[in-house]
Design goal:
EC 3.4.11.2; metalloprotease; protease; nine-stranded mixed beta sheet; Peptidase_M1_pepN_C_sf; five-stranded mixed beta sheet; 4 domains; binds zinc ion; alpha+beta; globular; Immunoglobulin-like
Length: 893
C-alpha cells in the first residue's frame, strides 16, 4: 500500500472552476454526466491531468466537445493531450455506478430506498472522476433526475433554482430538480439526497435581517422526533452569530437523517447528512445522553459551515484544522447553553473523561500520531480522537493563552485572511498569535506548535514546598513525554498550568508570585516551557493545599504526590469543580490500583471509611448539583484504570472495580435510598441540565440499590426497578432501570428485556440500546460471548447496518473488557472473525473494530500472546482492505 506523506504536498496541476453534474438516479445503474471547466495551474510545471476514480464505469470523455484519448493508471483516469496554454477548457465525463451495491457507504449509496452520498474524505471519486483533494474548490450546479413517485424529494447543495416534470418520451413519471451552490467548495462537501422524505421547517431571521429556511428531513413516521434537532439547529445559528460573528451564508440549510451511516454526521455545504442517532429524539425513545449528543453534533456540523467549509483544509494532514477547531466550538456551544457554572463544569468533566479514556490510550499505543499527522496509508483511519479531541484541546490552550476576547480577535483575523481558501494548521495558529502580538502564544508560537507535530501525552510532574519561615510556597513543575512510533525524542511543550492554593479552611488564597507587588487573582496560569521550572508564591501564611491543572488547562498526565488528606480537602472544598471531581477520582484510583497490585486474591474491601464518608458527604451535600454528584460517585472506568498500569490483567481490574462498586452500594445503602427518593420525580420530561442531572443521579442510585439487593437477597428494590421499567414516562428513566437489573444480574432482567423489546421492536435506535446493553453486560462465568453470538442470530440483527453492528460487536469488543479478554481467547477469535467478515463489505467500520486490540502489548499473559495471534491471523489475509491492513500492521510493529 502507498504511504502518503505530508512533506510531499504539491499544489494541484489543474484548477477546476465550475462543475455541472447531471444525475439520472437509478439504484442499479445511475448515470452521471460531469461537465467541468478546468485550467492549468500556472504555478506548476505542465503535466497530464490525473483524475481520481473508484469503482466507476467509464462511458465517454470529451474535451471541448471532441472525443479525446485517455488511459487508465489503475483506477486513475489520465489525460495527456489536453489543450496547451492557460486558457480554460471543458471536460465532459460520462460514467455509471451501482448505488444499491455500495455497501461501503462511501460515494453514492441507497439506504432504505433513499439515495445518499458520503464524500469525505475520498468518496467523490466513487461518483465521478475528479481531482479529489480538498484544495481544489469549484462552483457546483447539480441536476437530479429520478422517478417522481419513488423519489419525490430531490436535494443537493445550495439553492433550488428549478424543478418540475421531465418532458419527452421515456420520461413519463420522472421529474428533476436543479441546484446551484453559490459558494465554491471542495468536492468532499458535495451531497445529494433523493427519496420519499418529510421535513420539519422553520424560518429564522439573522441579525442582518436576512431570512433563512431551516429544514430537518426524515422518513415518514419520524416527524415526532425532529423537534429537538430543529431547536438545536436554531440555537447553533444564533450562537455562532453571537459568539463569533459568523452568520448563516445560505438561504436554506438542510439536515437529512439516514439510518445507514459510517460516522455521526457530515457537514456537506447546506445539506448536512446525519446518522439518525444524532437527529431523532423524543422523550419516549431517547435518553438525556442522546439529547445532549444531538445538540452537540447538530452544532458541530453547523459550525463547520465556517470552520471547514468557508475555510477548508489544504490537504488531509490538516484535518484537525477543521475538526479540532470545530470540536472546540461545539464544546463551547454546549457550555454556553448551560445556565450555571456548575453545569458548564459538568460538561467540561465529561469532555475530559472522553479525552482521557479514549485519546490518552491512542496516544500511548501503536496508532499514536500527531494532531497533524506526517503520513498515512488510508486517511479514513485518521478521523481519530487525537485529531478531534486532542485537536480541540490544542485550540482550547490557544484560547487560554490569549484570553477569550483575544481568541475572538484571532478568529476574526483568520477569516479575514483565509475566507474561501484551503489552508493549514500553521495558518490558524499564526492568525490567533498575530491578533494577540503581546501574548504568550505570540512569544512562544514555534514552540507551541509542537502540540501539532509531536505525538504522545506529556507528563507534568508537580511538587510543592512550603517554607514557614519566609511564608513562601514553591511549586516545581517538570515535563517529559514518552517516545511514540517514529518519534523517539520529544522537545518541551508549552504547557499552560492553571493553579490555585487552598488554606486550611478550604478558601482560595490570593496569589502573588515573588517579584509582584500585589496579589492577582486566586487562579494563576503558569506557562511551563522548560523541562523544569519553579514558581514561588509569597505571603502564604500557612501551608496550603495546591490545586494544580484547574479546569484541565492542558491535555497532560499530572503526577503529583498528594496525600489522602490533601485530596479529601480538595474534594470537600476546591472552588474549581474540575479539580474537586478529580480529587475524588484520584482517591478512588489509588484504592483500585492498590487492590489490583496486592499479592494474592483481590481484597474484599478496597474502600476505607475515609473514602466512603467523603463519598457520602458529596452525595448528601446540600449545595452541589445532582449532575456533579453523579460524576463524583462514578468510579473511574476500567479502561482508565488499565492505562495507569504497565501490565494489564482485565479480569483483575474488573473484579476490583466491581468489589469497590459493591462496597459503595452496601456502605451507602441508606444514602442511595435517600438519593433515589429525592431525585426520582422530575415532572414533565425536559432535556435540560438540572433534570438531566437529577435523572442521572436517580439512575445511579437505583443501580446501586439493585447491587446492594444482590448481596442482601432483598427483592424489594429489584421489584421497584422492574416497575420503573414498566411505568417510566421517559426513556432515560426506563433505560436506567433496565440497566440496573441487567448489570446487577437479577433474575427479573430477562423479563424486563423481553418486555422492553416488545415495546420498542419498531424503534431501530431503541433496539440498538437493547442490543448494546446485553453485549456490554458484566460477564458471569463467561456468559456474555454466547449471548453475543445469539444476538448476532437475532432476526433484528443486521451486520451491514453500522449502528446495529456497533451496538453488538463494538459494545462487546471495545466496551466490555472483562467479557472480551477471556483466558480461552474465544473473544479474540470472535473479534478476528468479525473484522475479516466486515472488511469484505465495509472497510471503514472493520478498521474501527480492528483497533479494539490496540493495547495488546500491555496485556498480561495468557491474553497478550493470544491477542497477538488473533491480530496476526487478521494480518495474514492477503486481500485485506488498506484500512484494516494499516491498523494491524501498525499494531504488530
Ligand atoms: N467531517 C465528517 C467526517 C465524516 C466522515 C469521514 C469518513 C467517512 C465517513 C464520514 N462521515 C463523516 C464528520 C465531522 O467531523 O463532522
Ligand atoms: Zn467535524
Amino acid at each position: 500500500a502507498t504511504v502518503i506523506r505530508r512533506e510531499d504536498y504539491t499544489p494541484p496541476a489543474y484548477w477546476v472552476d465550475t462543475v455541472e453534474l447531471i444525475f439520472d438516479l437509478d439504484p442499479a445503474k445511475t448515470r452521471v454526466l460531469n461537465r467541468m471547466r478546468l485550467r492549468r495551474n500556472p504555478d506548476v510545471p505542465a503535466q497530464a491531468l490525473r483524475l481520481d476514480g473508484d469503482d466507476l464505469n467509464l462511458a465517454r470523455v470529451l474535451v471541448n466537445g471532441q472525443g479525446c484519448s485517455f488511459k487508465m493508471d489503475g483506477s486513475t483516469l489520465v489525460l495527456e493531450s489536453l489543450p496547451e496554454g492557460h486558457e480554460p477548457f471543458e471536460l465532459e465525463i460520462f460514467t455509471t455506478c451501482a448505488p444499491e451495491k455500495n455497501t461501503q457507504l462511501m460515494g453514492l449509496y441507497v439506504s432504505q430506498g433513499t439515495f445518499f452520498t458520503q464524500c469525505e474524505a475520498e468518496g467523490f471519486r466513487r461518483i465521478t472522476y475528479f481531482l479529489d483533494r480538498p484544495d481544489v474548490m469549484a462552483s457546483y450546479t447539480v441536476t437530479l433526475r429520478a422517478d417522481k413517485a419513488r423519489y419525490p424529494v430531490l436535494l443537493s447543495n445550495g439553492n433550488l433554482v428549478e424543478s418540475g416534470d421531465l418532458p419527452g418520451p421515456g420520461n413519463e413519471g420522472r421529474h428533476f430538480a436543479k441546484w446551484v451552490d453559490p459558494h465554491k467548495k471542495p468536492c468532499y462537501l458535495f451531497a445529494l439526497v433523493a427519496g420519499n422524505l418529510v421535513a420539519r421547517e422553520q424560518r429564522v431571521r439573522a441579525r442582518s435581517g436576512q431570512e433563512h429556511l431551516l429544514q430537518v428531513y426524515v422518513r415518514q413516521g419520524d416527524m415526532d422526533k425532529t423537534e429537538h434537532a430543529m431547536n438545536s439547529l436554531i440555537h447553533s445559528v444564533i450562537w455562532d452569530e453571537a459568539r463569533f460573528g459568523l452568520p448563516l451564508d445560505l438561504e436554506r440549510f438542510m439536515i437529512v437523517a439516514t439510518s445507514d451511516f459510517n460516522m455521526g454526521a457530515m457537514e456537506n455545504k447546506g445539506l448536512n447528512i446525519f446518522n439518525t442517532k444524532y437527529v431523532l429524539a423524543n422523550s419516549a425513545t431517547a435518553t438525556d445522553t442522546d439529547f445532549a449528543n444531538i445538540e452537540s453534533v447538530v452544532g458541530h456540523e453547523y459550525f463547520h459551515n465556517w470552520t471547514g467549509n468557508r475555510v477548508t483544509c489544504r490537504d488531509w494532514f490538516q484535518l484537525s484544522l477543521k475538526e479540532g477547531l470545530t470540536v472546540f466550538r461545539d464544546q463551547e456551544f454546549s457550555m454556553d447553553l448551560c445556565a450555571t457554572p456548575s453545569a458548564r463544569a459538568v460538561k467540561r468533566i465529561e469532555d475530559v473523561r472522553v479525552l482521557r479514556t479514549a485519546q490518552f490510550p491512542e496516544d500511548a499505543g501503536p496508532m499514536a500520531h500527531p494532531v497533524r499527522p506526517d503520513s498515512y496509508v488510508e486517511i479514513n483511519n485518521f478521523y481519530t480522537v487525537t485529531v478531534y479531541e486532542k485537536g480541540a484541546e490544542v485550540v482550547r490552550m490557544q484560547q487560554t493563552l490569549v484570553g477569550r476576547e483575544g481568541f475572538r480577535r484571532g478568529m476574526d483575523l483568520y477569516f479575514q485572511r483565509h475566507d474561501g481558501q484551503a489552508v493549514t494548521c500553521d495558518d490558524f495558529a499564526q492568525a490567533i498569535a498575530d491578533a494577540n502580538p503581546d501574548s504568550d502564544l505570540a512569544r512562544l508560537l514555534p514552540q507551541f506548535k509542537r502540540w501539532y507535530s509531536q505525538a504522545g501525552t506529556p507528563r507534568v510532574h508537580a511538587s510543592g514546598h512550603y517554607d514557614a519561615a519566609t511564608q513562601r510556597y514553591t511549586l516545581t513543575l517538570s515535563q517529559s513525554c514518552e517516545a511514540t512510533p517514529g518519534q523517539a525524542e520529544k522537545q518541551p511543550f508549552v504547557i499552560p498550568v492553571a493553579v490555585g492554593l487552598l488554606d486550611a479552611q478550604g478558601q482560595d488564597l490570593a496569589l502573588q508570585l515573588v517579584g509582584e507587588t500585589v496579589p492577582a487573582g486566586t487562579t494563576r496560569l503558569l506557562v511551563l516551557t522548560e523541562p523544569q521550572h519553579s514558581y514561588t508564591f509569597e505571603g502564604v501564611a500557612t501551608e496550603p493545599v495546591p490545586s494544580v491543572l484547574r479546569g484541565f488547562s492542558a491535555p497532560v498526565l499530572l503526577d503529583m504526590a498528594q496525600s489522602d488528606a490533601h485530596l479529601l480537602h480538595l474534594l470537600a472544598h476546591d472552588s474549581d469543580p474540575f479539580n474537586r471531581w478529580e480529587a475524588g477520582q484520584r482517591l478512588a484510583l489509588r484504592r483500585a490500583l492498590a487492590a489490583i497490585r496486592a499479592e494474592g486474591p483481590a481484597p474484599t474491601a478496597p474502600l476505607d471509611n475515609a473514602f466512603l464518608d467523603a463519598m457520602r458527604s458529596v452525595l448528601r451535600h446540600p449545595a452541589l448539583d445532582a449532575a456533579f454528584k453523579e460524576l463524583v460517585l462514578t468510579l473511574p472506568a476500567e479502561s482508565y484504570i488499565a492505562e495507569q498500569l504497565d501490565v494489564v490483567d482485565p479480569q483483575r481490574i474488573h473484579a476490583v472495580r466491581e468489589t469497590m462498586r459493591q462496597q459503595l452500594a452496601n456502605a451507602l445503602f441508606d444514602d442511595w435510598v435517600w438519593a433515589w427518593e429525592q431525585h426520582k420525580d422530575n415532572g414533565a420530561y425536559r432535556p435540560e441540565p438540572v433534570s438531566t442531572g437529577r435523572r442521572a443521579l436517580a439512575g445511579l442510585a437505583l443501580g446501586m440499590l439493585c447491587l446492594a439487593a444482590r448481596d442482601s437477597g432483598d427483592t424489594v428494590w429489584p421489584g421497584k426497578t422492574y416497575q420503573r421499567v414498566k411505568d417510566a414516562d421517559n426513556m432515560t428513566d426506563r433505560f436506567n432501570a433496565l440497566s440496573a437489573l441487567v448489570v446487577s444480574g437479577h433474575a427479573l432482567a430477562r423479563d424486563a428485556l423481553a418486555r422492553f423489546h416488545t415495546l420498542f421492536k419498531n424503534e431501530a435506535l431503541v433496539l440498538d440500546k437493547w442490543f448494546a446493553l446485553q453485549a456490554g453486560a458484566p460477564d458471569r462465568g463467561g456468559n456474555v460471548l454466547p449471548a453475543v453470538r445469539q444476538l448476532l442470530a437475532h432476526p433484528d440483527f443486521h451486520l451491514k447496518n453500522p449502528n446495529r453492528a456497533r451496538s453488538v460487536i463494538f459494545s462487546y469488543c471495545n466496551a466490555n473488557p472483562a467479557a472480551f479478554h477471556r483466558e480461552d481467547a474465544a473473544g479474540y477469535v470472535f473479534w478476528s472473525d468479525r473484522v475479516l467478515e466486515i472488511d469484505t463489505f465495509n472497510p471503514q467500520v472493520a478498521s474501527r473494530l480492528a483497533r479494539a486490540l490496540d493495547r495488546w502489548k500491555k496485556l498480561a499473559e495468557p491474553y497478550r500472546s493470544a491477542a497477538r495471534e488473533a491480530i496476526a491471523r487478521v494480518a495474514a489475509k492477503p486481500d485485506l482492505s488498506n484500512d484494516v491492513r494499516e491498523v494491524v500492521t501498525r499494531s504488530l510493529a
